[in-house]
Design brief:
There is one protein chain. It is built from six helices and no strands.
Length: about 180
């Protein structure tokens, strides 16, 4: 049996009086787990909160890994495409044009990743639905916000390789072939 008692004062101060009142009626009634409601709620939701915090840590780790992976791919692409970038520069491509080219490729990579991630998240939404409170598994505002953050991370991760590509001297690029 469970009972809830509303108090106007400190809940901890009322617990001994509550125990004495129950035992004054029947001394055989076992009284266990006397606690204020916030403590009971915290104990009940502790597992779910731990799981959600763990998901948050893994999500942050995934963003860091995605950014470093995108940076590595773009750096390798710029290093491998040095000759092509040099030829473009020799033929008159501006630094801004080269910068837009590299950033455009990174945004395309990110959009492909976001698209596949959205499809997979739609499939996995049922699994996560039981863990969420106050937010639908596919809340449009949350999905749009997370997508914008990931796209921003992709652009930031592509920034250094794009600037490096724009600074390539066409003559040096053509000589290194």
């Amino acid at each position: 049996m469970t009972a809830a008692v509303r108090t106007t004062g400190d809940a901890q101060a009322v617990l001994p009086a509550l125990r004495a009142a129950v035992w004054s009626v029947d001394r055989r009634v076992p009284i266990a787990n006397l606690a204020p409601l916030p403590d009971l709620i915290a104990a009940t939701t502790a597992r779910r909160q731990f799981a959600l915090r763990l998901f948050g840590v893994f999500a942050a780790l995934a963003v860091v890994l995605a950014a470093s992976g995108l940076y590595g791919v773009l750096s390798a692409m710029v290093a491998e495409g040095t000759r092509e970038i040099g030829i473009r520069g020799a033929l008159g491509a501006s630094r801004g044009g080269i910068l837009r080219l590299v950033l455009g490729q990174s945004v395309r990579f990110a959009l492909v990743g976001l698209g596949s991630g959205l499809v997979l998240s739609l499939l996995g939404a049922r699994l996560l639905g039981s863990l969420l409170y106050g937010v639908a598994p596919w809340d449009p505002l949350t999905v749009a916000g997370v997508s914008a953050v990931l796209l921003g991370v992709a652009v930031l991760a592509a920034g250094l390789p794009a600037v490096r590509a724009a600074r390539i001297d066409p003559a040096d690029a053509l000589r290194s072939v």
